[in-house]
Amino acid sequence: MYHKHQFSGTSSYCEDHEHSYCSESTIGLNKTPHSHYLKGVTSFSNGHCHTFCITSEKDIQIPGGWHVHLYHGITDPFEGHTHNITGYTFSE
Question: How many structural domains are present in the chain?
Answer without folding.
Answer: 1
